[in-house]
Structure prediction request, 322 residues.
Amino acid sequence: MRSTELLSILNDEQSGLFFLAGLDGTDGGKQELTLHTAGRNFSSLNERFLREKLSEIKSDIALSVRHHTSEALFAPKSVEQFINMFPHEEIVGDPTGAFARAGSLLRLAISLRSKFGSQAGQLLWQNDNGILYVVPNTGPELMEADAPTMKAQADAIARGMCATLLDRQLAMVLKGILVVDKVPAGSYTPVDAKSVSTRAVRGRMLKIAAAVSGIASAIGIGSVSLAAAHVPAMDQTVDSMPGIAALNGLTSLGENSLGQRNSYQSIGGLRLYFGNPDPELMAACGLGKTYPGSCFLDNYWGSGADSEKGSAPASSRSTYGT
Prediction:
């Protein structure tokens, strides 16, 4: 089966809103095409269409459809843990454009850890400005001397990667690498498992989790575990976001060829493919009031505060591509 034929089928709107398509058995064994979907974005009619089309071209590829719940998608605490949920020999469908770039970000993390060893500490991705933060395992007294050298070496590694065919898309989203002596303010996503903090969550988040669980139980639309799935885990800080949150800064949705992004289109596109996780539950819990100026969901898919201000599309993020 020619790859062009498969791509033509997957690109047909009747194939449904899958967010990833992986092909396995490409080394000569029986091939299996797996489509990953969220919520109810994929119907039996979509599956029937795909099976009929694969049959028409006399393909021996087996079709598998995996439906993922919001709880499962939001559970991984880092980009690495999230991407590892989808192990495939070949990615043949990436409609959000985020998974290829996430793979590049992970390869950059591997290269940085290979270069700096245990000194690398935490690697944190910040969506809003396209910055990868390196928080070294170095005492404050050494930071002033070490930081400029580490940054120069990290920049060189990133530029080298962005010059390759495999990882050139990383240049569209990576604006810079900063070496800092502490975890930055604002929202960020740990890149790999070694970057996940084990510090206790702040008291106010514990209270919010308890309140959400109590309301969910009282109104009968979700279990305690379901409600708790939508607040940061107890071993994370308030500002640490789950792995799936990184897709907001890595997606190509709403992005033009210069890397300029319309945040409204990118957030809307991600919601289209992944859905709003339990919006009724969040509305009933009044979580929009918990974080003034933004919906709780927007802490994952984008900044509600920026949306209210009517911010202009993000500027080009091609720092490492020039």
About this structure: The chain has three domains: 3-68, 98-198, 203-314. The CA atoms of residues 14 and 46 lie 6 Å apart. The first helix runs from residue 3 to 11. The radius of gyration is 21 Å.
